Amino acid sequence: MNAIIQQRQGRKRHKRKTHDKCYKKCGTISSVKDLRRHLQTAIEIEHATLPPYLTALYSIKEGTNAFSYQTIQSVAMEEMLHMILACNILNAIGGHPAINKKRFVPSYPGYLPHSNNSFIVGLGKFSPEAIDTFLEIELPAQAGAPAQPDHWDTIGQFYEAIEYALCHFDLVTEGGIFTGDKSYQLDENDYYGGGGKLFKVYNLPRAIVAIQEILSQGEGMSDSIFDSDEMFGEEIDIAHYYKFNEIKEGRRYTLNGTPEKPPCGEKVDVDYDEVYNMAPNPSIKNYPEGSPLWQQTNEFNKTYMALLDSIHDAVNGNPDELKRAVPLMFDIKYKAIALMKTPYKDGMTAGPSFEFVK
Amino acid sequence: MTNSTEHFDTFLAISAWLTGYEPVELQGTGMVQTYYSTLRENITAIDLDAFFAESDFILAKAQTDVDAAKVRTASHLMQNSSFNSLGKQIILMWYIGQWFADPSGDPNNSVQINAQSYVEALMWPTADTHPPGAKEPGFGSWAVKPVSVDTFNVTL
Amino acid sequence: MTEKQYDVVVVGSGIAGAVLAKVLTQAGKEVLMLEAGLTAGMALKPEEDYENYQSYLQRFYETTIKATNTPYPEIKDAPSISVLEIQPQTPYETGYMVQLGPLPFGSDCLRAPGGTTLHWLGNVPRMLPNDFQMKTLYDQGVDWPICYDDLMRYYEMAENEIGVAGDVDSQQGPDMSRSNYGPDYVFPMDKIPQSYQDQVWIKSTNGLDVSLYGKTYTVNCISMPQGRNSTPNNDYRYADTVWDPASQSLNLITTDKNYEVVGATWNSYTGERCEGNASCVPICPVQAKYNALKTLKKADESKLDIITKAVASRVLIEPGGTDVAGIMYKAYTDPDSIEYTPHIAKGKIYVLACSAIENAKLLLASNVANSSDQVGRNLMDHLVLLTWGLLPEKGYPYRGPGCTTYIPTFRDGEFRKDFAAWISPIDNWGWSWPTFAPGSDVTNAVINNAMFGKDLRSHLNADVPRQTLLHFECEQAPCADNRITISEKYKDHLDNYRPVIEYDASDYMRKSFKAAKHVSDQIFAANNIEDHTIYSPTEADYVTWDGQGYTFRGAGHIVGTHRMGSSASESVVDKNQRTWDHQNLYLVGCGNMPTLGTSNPTLTMTAMTYQAAESILKQLESNN
User: What is the chain B residue with the closest CA to A326?
Assistant: First the structure.
C-alpha cells in the first residue's frame, strides 16, 4: 500500500504532509468529533448528486442516446461507490453514518450540503441545462486552491480539508484515530459496477487512497482528464467532469486529451428530444393527497426510503444488507420511468421526487 | 373518419375497467397511445364508434352500480359476438403486448406489436415478476420475495 | 487471403473453437478460424459489439413466438436447426433438418459467432466418475477411453475459463462428493443464490424418502454450478491456463489476486453479476452469462485471423495419402444469396469445432475419418420429461436464472442397468416451457373464460406465482441407428448438405420416463403440489410405456456423432481427439462424447477441448 501512496504522490498535487502543515490546513475542523461530522457531510454530498444524475438518466428514452446513457450511468455508479467509501472512512474512525434520517435527504432545487451556495441543483430531465449543472458539481479545483472545510468552492477542496484533518488527528492522537470496528467495512464483494473498486479502510494510507479515488474519478488527476483507475488494474477511464463535457460538446476525448482543450475525438450523437418531458423538480406536494399521481409518487418515495434504510443498515454493521439494497436500486429505476411516462400537466410528465417519507 | 384523439379518454378508461389496472398504472407503461393507434389501424371507425359508445355506457354505469356494469360488460363486451371480440382483443393487447387478429377463432394468430409492448405487457407484473430479458431486478433478487410483495406487502 | 499456411485451422467459433483460438495463439501459434455466421456478431470494437448485441435483444423483444434461436439472425447460407421446425409426424423435410423419424429429434443449436453459448442456459455440473464406465459397471453403451481422473485437471481449466459460480461442498450425491474435486478446490465464484422458490421446495423435499421398484432413495436438493457471474470466491487462486513448453503441458497458473469477473464483451462493467433477467435462454442482455466470445477476445489477436461468412464445405485429403490437405469453404457476401466463392484454408493441423451436427455432416460430405462407419451415429440428447403443478403457496417463479437448485439423487445407481439415470433441475421459470405460460394463462382466462377486470387480474395473480416445474433429464444411451446422414436429395442454399436425422427413444429410455414420473408423483405429494402435467398423444415426441403416455423434450445437448474410443474400428477419434484416420485432423466438441452422463455436456466438452489443445500443441512442437 505504501508503494501505491508514493507512486500516487508523484502524480498528485498533494505533497507529503507534515504535522504543522496538516494542522494549519485543517481549517475549522477542530476535533475528531468535528471530523466525523465533516465525513457525514461528505456522505451527504455524494448522495445529493445521485437523485439529479438518476433523474436525468432515467428520462432518456429506451434505446436512444446510448453514449449519454452509459456515461451518466457510470458516473452514478461511481457516486454510489464514493458514498460507501466515505462511509468506510467514517466507520474507520469510529463514526456512525446516518443515511436514513430526514436531514440526510436533500430537497430539490437546493444547494449541495456545506457548499458555497454558488449553484443550485435540481431534478430535471436530460437537457443541456442539466449537463451544465453536472459540470458545476464535478468542477475540478484550481491548482493550489486551498482546502475548505466549509462553504467549499469545489468538492475537491472540501475533501482536501478532510484529508488534512485525518492526517493531523491521526498523528496527534494517542494510538491513532483508526479505531473503528473493522467488521463495519464494506468491500468489492459487497458492491460492484462502474470503474473503481470498493475497499476496506482501516488506516491512514487507505483512507488517503480512498479520498484520492473519490477525487480522481470526479475531477480527474491533477492536470489530466483521466482518473486513477488504471492503477487499480482497471480500464483507463476519464473523470466525471470530462465525461459530462463529452456530452456537452458531443465529442469524445482522445487519449491525448487535456483539461485545457475541448474534446476533439469522434462525434457522439446526443439527442435531447429523445427524452421524457418531465416537469422539473417533481414533488408529492404538487398532487392532491390520495390522487393517483400522489399515490404513485408516494410508492416511489417509499421504495427510495427502503433503499436508504437498507444502505444505512449495511454501513452500520450489517454489510450483507447491501445485497438487499440491490433489488430496491433496480426497482426505483422502473418506478421513476413509469412516473416519467405519466402525463402531469402542460404536456409535461410526472417524475421521481426522492423525498423523505415515514 | 373519426379524428385521431376522439375516444382516447374512453379508451384509457375502458382499458382500465377491462384489465383491472388503474389508469395511472396503464399510463406508466407508456403504451396508451401505441395501443390506441393499433386499434385505429385494425378496426373500422364505425365499429370503434359503436364500441366506445357501449364503453361509455358501461363506464357511466360503473360509477353507480359496479355489479350491473360487470353484467353488462360480460354480455355486451366479452361475448364472441360482441364487436368481433374487440373487448378480448384489448385485454390481450394490454396483458400480452400482442394483437390477436381473431381471438375467438385462432388464438395463435397474434403479432407482437413492438419491442416495448413486450417489455410492458401486464401479465408480468400481474404474476409478481418482470418480462424475461427486461426490467431485470438485480443480483440475488430472486432469492427473496419480489420487492413489490416484500417491501409493501401489496395484495390485490 | 488463404495463401498463408497456418499452424492450425479451426472451423467454428463456439466454445470449443474459442478455447482453441485462445490457447493456441497465446502459445504463439498462428491460427485461422472459419465461422459460418455473420461478421457483425464477431465485432471486436466495443461500440459495434454493443450495437450488434442490442440488435439481438431487440429481435428477441419484437418476435411474436420466442424460441432458443429467436434473437439471432437467420441465414439461408448457413442455416441453424430450430426447435420451431419440429413436427409431431415424421418423416418431414420442411425445416433445415430432414427428420426421418420414427421420432423427431427435438433440440437445436446455433451457427453464429460464439455458437450455441449465446443461447445456452449455463448449467455446468461435472460428469460423475461412473459415467465414464457405463459398459463395465452397468452393461450399457460403451466405456470411455479416459476416466474421470484423467479429465480432472482439464475440468479445472474449463471452470476457470467459463467462470463457474458454485459451491463445491454442497455437491453431494451418488458417486459425487468432495473427493470428485480434491481437498481444497473451490469454484472461481460463490454459488449463484438459490431462488426463493427453491427454498419453498427444499422444505419438504430435502431428505424425503421416495420408493422406486422396492428400493428407497433419499432425495436431496443442492445448488447448481453455473457459468454466470456471481461474487468472486476469495479462496480461488487460479489466474489462467498457460502452455508450458518445458513440460509440454497446459497448466493453470496461480495468482495472489482475486478472480477477475469477466463482464460483457463491450464493457467490462456491464454484467459483473447476474442481474436476474430470467432469460439466460435465449439471451442474457448483460452478458453476465458466459459466452464463447469472451474467450475469443482473450486470444492473441496478432496470431489470429478470423474469416466470417465462410462455410466449411469439404475436408480435402492429400492425393494418394491420408493427411488433410486443406478445408474448402464457401465464402458468401449476401447471407441469403446462392452465390459464393470457394476458397481453401491451409494449415499444419485442422480442427473441426462446429457442433456435433455440422462436424458429422462435414465429415460425411468429405468422406473422411469414417473407416469405422461411426461418423453420424450414436446421436444423443437428454430426453427431458417435464412435470408441472401448482404449489400450495406462492413460489414467485419467472425470476432468476433458469435453474439454481437440482436433485442429484438419480444420477447414478444400480438401476442404470435397467433404465436411464437422470438429473432433476428444479426450474425457476414457471410453466413457460411446457405450456407457454403465462401468455397461455391469459388467453385461457380471457378467450375461453371471458374473464376481465379486477377478477382477471386477481385470478392470474393467485395462480401464476404458484406455478412450478420439475425436469427429469434422462441420459440417452448410445444407439447406432440414432444418426445423422446426408443425401444428394437434401442440400441447402449454398449447395451444402442438410442434416438428415433418424431418431428414436429405446425401451431403456421409456422405462426411465415411467420411473421418473413415479418419483415426481411422490415429490409432488410431499410438497402438496397440485399436478397439472399433461402428455398429449398429438405432441411431438410422445411415447408410451406400460400403457402410459409420456412426452419428452429435447435438452439442446446434442452429443455423440463422432465418438471417441480406444480402437480405430469402433470410434472416430482417439483419446486425444485426433481422428484415427488422419494424423493432422482433430475433432472437438460434444460429438466426441461416447456417452452422455447426466451432466449438461458443455463443461465436459470444454475440459476435453483443453486436452485436445494440449495434444495439438505437443504435435506441433514435435514436428518442429
Answer: B138
